[in-house]
Amino acid sequence: MLFSSIPFLYYFLPAVLIVYFLVPWKLKNGVLLLSSLFFYGWGEPKLLFLMVFTVLLFYFCGLAIGRTGEQRWKKFWLAVSVVISIALLGLFKYADFFIGSFNAVAGLSVPLLRLALPVGISFYTFQCLSYTIDVYRDNVPAQKNLISFGAYVALFPQLIAGPIVRYVDVARELDRRTHSWEDFAVGIRRFLLGLGKKVILADNFALLMKLFRESGEKSVLFYWMYAVAFTLNIYFDFSGYSDMAIGLGRVFGFRFIENFNYPYLSKSITEFWRRWHMSLGSWFRDYVYIPLGGNRVSRGRWVCNILAVWMLTGLWHGAAWNFVLWGLLFAAVLLIEKWVPALQKLPNILRHGYVLLIVVLSFVLFNAESMAQAGSNLACMFGFGNLPLTSAPALYYLRSYAPLFAAGFVGSAPVVRDAARKLEQTKLCGVLELALMLGLLLVCTAYLVDGSFSPFLYFRF
Amino acid sequence: MTKKVCAILLAAVWGLLAVSQLVLPDQEVSDAERRPLVQMPEISVESLLDGSFMADFEDYSLDQFPLRDTFRKIKSLFHYYVLGQSDNNGIYIAGGSAVKQEYPLNESSVNHALERFNYLYDKYLTGSKVYMAIVPDKGYYLAEGSSHLALDYEAMFTAFREGMPWATHIDLTDVLSGEDYYRTDTHWRQENLLDAARKLCNALGVTAPEAEDYTLTQLERPFYGVYYGQAALPMEPDTIYLLESELLKACTVYDYESGKTTAVYDLEKLESKDLYDVFLSGARSLLTIENPNAATDRELIVFRDSFGSSVVPLLLQDYAKVTLLDIRYIQIDLLEQFVEFKGQDVLFLYSTLVLNNSSTIK
User: Fold this and answer.
1) Tens of pLDDT along A41-57?
2) Closest residue, chain A, to B19 (C-alpha)
3) Least CB-CB distance to A46: which of B5, B49, B62?
């Protein structure tokens, strides 16, 4: 079920809120678990078993790790949880990628499995892994209550597109959390802002991308518009989802970690990755990079660590070579930034410029359906595609989408947030906020009713 | 206002919409969009497991949302005026008229239409005098001035001139303007078609209509054209005027599909959702008009789309019989069962909209 859908907004969410706030405390996690399983089953009825299996696997492995005093048994149960969950992720997400690559290299034709990718599998697998690893490291005690643990894994606000909430961060709230009108109001406001980002901005950029793909009159300008539109689309789509998740979490009494911090303001790629999909970056840092030795190893080993982490980051996003290359591209830039400190002394405008250029080009690679298409798109952007500089549709859509691009650029910077903070000091704040939130709700509903429907980009991860 | 009050008021509006969704009766059709609305899907183990119930329920919830037309209007206004988009769902307003952005030229569609027309000619029409008139859609007149995209009309006209060398081509572009079309609809206004009809009649070599031959009758019901619902922007409805004459009143129209005989202006369609259907009963595959007061015994066969319905009555004066064929609704190979091709005048009358989307031509 999509957050930006009528069934979620006007059937599921109101019903869950009513039941959740009516039942006594001891039943609240049960309500969350059941509603989350319903939420997941609505979109993936046949793969619900996989979710239930994952919950049971990590619950019992966590208990086993927590109860045994012997290190080797702790290690054993950790290995069980890691191997089985990675195997399932590999089977559902990566099997065909590896088979296809093997076929290409060996000249064979081993049949592909063509399994459906369970929605959100990368997110909930990583969340679960953080749980058993943290229990193994004695960072957090194992959860004894299956319903509470199930509610953590399946929690619908962040189930399918993050942020990757670690168990250790919500362990206390699972067992004891408070609810208030303040949390409800702040949470709903955050949710509606995220909904607006998704429905009004991201989906309209997606529409421009669709128009580009369907156009028979491509041009260099059109290719750049497409690339910039995707850069804004993926940011508002993904950060909008994170806003909705964080907002809903707040309504139910959880404080999820932030996932974005205006990444397009960055002055280096290193900074960009501290601001973009922060929960994934910190996950790889804490559970892969540092265990590999981080930067406290020889220079050669350190480079290998960086390449490994970024190759995995690329692969996490998708089972295709363009994602691997996308990850390695960032690894290369990060290494250059570390080896060439002079980059940090460039004027700010140049630093912003090079970050944005690399990010835009990287997303062209990211969004391509194949390496060949990525190469072709990049070639066309730089005038090697035998295309005219402009075309009638490119100019038309540039004019038509200019206000949306402007809104996208402004929305990528903290201008709106800063203005809202200033407004909070005034007496009119409450009335204006209510008017804005009602407006957002009605306009987003209007877009949905009119049928501008597109699934969240990050669902495929 | 405290955060609590703000949250309560917001939740109240949200809840009101949610409750309305549950308690308001479902609608059967959308008048604005001219389509049936999705009804509550049936639930079964199979439809739950394969996910079809969920997909159908999504469609149902969208179609049956309370105040659906109002919300579509909110979206259009926001999209058009706040986001500054040049069009909404491919429709824009120019000169107060809603226009569908028909772009780009669909060459495969043009080729398909040409292939069908040539097949038709080879099968039935060799030996007939054949004429071809393309009706420009209103984008021809309104796109450029409003900086919107428009298909390459000249390329289309050239393609048909060259692809139908056996026909005499009649250019209607210089006898029409953007004001000759309904503001809320795709079609042209009959009361403004005398110049176009004259040009057609002069080419066909028959008596051309004069304004004094007709009296103007206004239909009482306002006309909400097809773009009215699609654009969902605030627009005043159109008014339909009929050009009536004694000659037309004496004509009878036979509909081969229904077996009914009607008048040229089918007043039963006054209650129709599409008031334009009053012209020759709307979309019909095969009609014949018998004109007892014709000045000659000549006959005309018109291969046409819906634009023909309002202009053909103005071509009738000399023709004793006019046959109207819409080959989007009847196979070309079946025509000989109903029509005897014996050297009648033949007119192909097609709008650029159909020629650019000709997959429906059979």
Assistant:
1) 998 788 889 999 999 99
2) A10
3) B49
In chain A, the number of structural domains is 2
Q: Residue A1: inside a domain, yes or no?
A: no
State whether A11 and B18 contact (CB < 8 Å).
Answer: yes
Active centre residues of A (catalytic): 317
Closest Cα of chain A to B197: distance in Å? 34
Q: How much is the pLDDT for A452?
A: 46
Please identify, among B94, B122, B149, the residue that sits at the C-terminal boundary of a domain: B94
A204 neighbourhood in chain B, CB within 8 Å: 83, 85
- B68/B143 same-domain check: no
pLDDT 10s digits, A328-346: 999 999 999 999 988 888 9
A451 touches chain B (CB under 8 A): yes
Check pLDDT > 90 for residue B233.
no
Residues B49 and B135 in one domain: no
CB-based contacts of A254: which residues, under 8 Å, 6+ apart?
A155, A157, A165, A170, A173, A177
pLDDT category of residue A459 using cuts at 50, 70 and 90: very low
Residues A364 and A230 reside in one and the same domain? yes
Q: Are residues B64 and B107 in the same domain?
A: no
Q: B77 near B233, Cβ under 8 Å?
A: yes
| Residue whose entry in the numeric block shows the structure tokens 């949905």 | A448
Is there a single domain that holds both residue A267 and residue A325?
Answer: yes
Residues B68 and B136 in one domain: no
Nearest to B278 by CA among B229, B330, B220: B220
CA distance A160 to chain B (A): 17
In total, how many domains does chain B have? 2
Cβ contacts from A onto B, under 8 A: 134
Task: State the average pLDDT for chain A.
Answer: 91
Average pLDDT over residues B86-108: 91
- For residues A373 and A389, membership in a common domain is answered with yes
User: Which of B10, B52, B230 to probe the A interface (max A CBs under 10 A)?
Assistant: B10
How far apart CA A449 and CA A164 sit, in angstroms, is 31
Minimum-distance CB partner of A448 among B48, B62, B78: B62
- Are A273 and A341 part of one and the same domain? yes
Shortest CB distance from B10 goes to which of A9, A188, A446? A188
How far apart CA A327 and CA A329 sit, in angstroms, is 5
**Rg for chain B, CA atoms, rounded:** 24
- Cα A302 from chain centroid (whole Å): 27
Whole-complex ipTM: 0.88
What Rg do the C-alpha atoms of chain A give, in angstroms? Answer: 23
- Indicate yes or no: CB of A448 within 8 angstroms of CB of B78: no
**Distance in Å, alpha carbon of A397 to nearest chain B alpha carbon:** 8
